[in-house]
Amino acid sequence: MPLLDIKNLTLEIDTGTQVIKALDKINLTVNSGEIRALVGESGSGKSLIVQAISGATPPNWSITADRMSWNGNNLLSMSEQKRRQILRKDIGVVFQHAIASLDPSVTLGEQLEESLPDQLIEGSWFWQRAQSRRKVVINTVHKVGIKDHEQYLRAYPHQIPTDIGQKLMLAMALISQPKMLIADDPTRGMETTTKVQVLKLLSRLNQTRSLGILFVSHDLLAIASMSHSMTVLYCGQTVESGKMKHIRKRPLHPYTKALMDSAPSFSKDLPPKSQLPTLAGTIPTLQHLPIGCRLGPRCPRAQRACVNVPAVRKIHDHSYSCHFPLHRDKV
Amino acid sequence: MTKVLNVSGLTFRHSSKKRWLKKPEVFALGPIDMQVTKGETIAIIGQNRSGKSLLAKMLAGAVEPDEGHIQLQEERYWSVKHRVARKKADITGIRMIFQHNSESINPGITVGQILDEPLRLNSSMAEEERKALIGDTLVKVGLLREHIYFYRHMLSDGQQQRVSLAKAILPDPKVLIADEPFAALDPTIRSQTVNLILQLQKEMGLAFIFISHNLGIVRHIADRVIVMDKGQIIESGKTETIFRWPQHEMTKKLVMSYQSLIPQQTMREPD
Amino acid sequence: MSRFSLYDDEAHPSPWQHTWRAFKSSHIALVGLAVLLLFVFFAFFAPLVAPYNPTYQNTEALLIPPSWAPNGSIAHLFGTDALGRDLFSRIMYGCRVTFGTSLLVVIIAMLVGVTIGTIAGMLSGVRSSVVNHLLDALMAIPTLLIAIIIVGILGSGLVNSMWAITLALIPQFVHHTRSFVRGEMKKDYIQSSTLDGASNLQLFYYSILPNMIEMLVVQGTLALSIAVIDISALGFLNLGAQAPLPELGAILATGLDAGYLAPWNIAIPGVSIFLMVLSITIVGDGLRSALRKRVNR
């Protein structure tokens, strides 16, 4: 049974003047022990999905889905409390620019200790609890690969380098021993060496603890090196989804191909200083979403049929929604 | 193979004037030597705090070096030893664009006014001439002439980056310096911007020096790569040479971590 | 289904129009603006509109109640005071004096304060910090107190009280301008303008001022409400406008004498001052939220 199962999630935002379909029939599954990449540029709705899962939605949003369940329990029909509990215990979240999401006036050790849920602490007297808190924190910090815990636990957020900061955010997310981790672009803006460290850490955690990871990003190099499967999002629509190696070998949707082309490292025989193959145009804003397949205005293969939203088709485990996918010539 | 930029002995030491109540900065950069030929693309890579941004700012004139000189084509552009002060805003020489963020373009004025500024301050062109040049430049970077009436908040990220680019190439400079120009952009917009810069290089013979962490883009568009660490150039050479046969420890580290991300090596099955 | 629009063209409003639209959306702010505009009208056109001369004493019409009371007459809309002067005309002229002088005071304080603040913000170094912190310390003292002290030195009278309040209002303009300019100078686009060769003055006029106008308008309305209160207070304490000059605070003070017999002589000037300050505050508040909405788009 998949950990997170979302089928046909639609999110409508009522702005007073119009109703915008920010997310249009999104499908997403994360299995236990699987690293799924959620790929999309700005405006694709990646952060909206994270918000919809967490339930912290403003009143003018309306969420409908055929299925949106966590471990079998329907998230939509759950009470506020139960949902918050799940978020606290079972799902950990890591954001971009770790250091900015930490309290700048409190040392890191204190913040980590604060985020411990009570169940994991043993001892009945308060000094026992304080000791056990400290022990759990040190353990988790070691697990994320920081050996010199004394120095860093005593430091303040502005004094630590970025990679340590990101690892500490991971530690905070992992402290409640979640089953799944949502990583919202954790390697954004990082230099390569730091990025590799964080990614190695994530895959190690995934292997040793069978931790499911939902890796939201548009950094294709990072994703391609460690994800098992990928879901590609464009303007709130799922365009392709499947195993990483299948998609890399043979992308079926023109948008996926454009994304792959944007990283020159993926194409082996590109002459240096040549023009990169790109899609014309820009990403449409929420107010001006095209009807039907939202890539329509930009897609080089678009024809009349593209004014209707294409149905989801599957080839083995690889699903795509396009009227004129790449493995078939334009009719 | 005309040499368009010749830098020698460029140095920056900690703030020489110890101002009362101000801590002196302790970063030391240099001495830096480099040559750039016309139409060449040079990438500066290195870890954080290695001095890349400082070098870019010194080349562009935003920070005063303590020693050394910069020679642009034939003339002495800037020199401490010979007391040649930089011609106040010689804008046809070296221009710079910054990383895209919320502070790279003035939000309170229109695109037309933003682009008019370097011309208004430095040239004696009449207003119609300026307007014509601005319109032409906008078209060159892939925007419309009507965009002169737009404010910053009406443009997307990629378009804002294009406006910065237009402002930089407006006076037809010889060298363009960019500090992480592609970092904050989405992949498809990044490809468009890269293509635009390549095209402009071909059209204008522009030399392009840029700083980046994205080694994939570096490998694709750079002719030469300069690797910096702790304020020194530790290695420099042709792109392929650096990527295939890195010599210095730090270069090896950078190239190895980049290689480890390329998917050939690391494909695993979920358990 | 979104509304069908024939033209794909959309109007792209300038930052000003955006602010106005956000301001319009609050009904309270619009009501405040309407009342404020009424006062501005009085400030400029009182001599043309007032029914009587405010200093004309009609000895036959002493202490007539306002027109809505049973003994009142429509000839004197708000009644008369102990010397037979028509209250309505006095109020109109009073608004003219109070509001007019407050406006003048705020404009002068803004010009001086912005100049000092800009220079302080653009220069760096210890000297500017010292000056600024001195002025900041002045901000801790209530403006009315500073004004009273200055009036004590210069002597009473409307002009002296105007100078006093101007001086008391300058520090806050200096403070806000300085911190704004300082923040702007660090931004990338200012640095690139400097590289293009802009002098400090050109930087200020072309690059910083367009962004600063909004902040100035907000600070200006704040200062205006303080100025109105202080001028009326000084008038009430007989340190500012001297009789027979109609000024709302002074009218209030003279009304106190016959307070029990003719409460309208106190209530109506008081309500006018209250409405004036309220409308200025509401408009200032509306502007502030409109600006915040525009920034947080």
Automatic annotation (TrEMBL), chain C:
Major site of localization recorded for this protein: membrane
Top-rank taxon: Bacteria
Coiled coil regions, renumbered to chain: none
One GO CC term, this protein: plasma membrane
Residue spans crossing the bilayer: 28-50, 97-122, 134-155, 216-237, 266-287
Compartment list: Cell inner membrane; Cell membrane
InterPro entries: BP-dependent_transpt_permease, MetI-like, MetI-like_sf, OppC_N
Gene3D superfamilies linked: MetI-like (1.10.3720.10)
Signal peptide residues on this chain, from the entry's feature table: none
One of the GO BP terms on file: transmembrane transport
Pfam families: BPD_transp_1, OppC_N
Membrane topology label: Multi-pass membrane protein
Domain ABC transmembrane type-1: 99-284
Keywords assigned by UniProt, alphabetized: Cell inner membrane, Cell membrane, Membrane, Transmembrane, Transmembrane helix, Transport
UniProt record similarity statement: Belongs to the binding-protein-dependent transport system permease family. OppBC subfamily.
Listed name of the protein: Peptide ABC transporter permease
Organism for this UniProt entry: Alteromonas alba
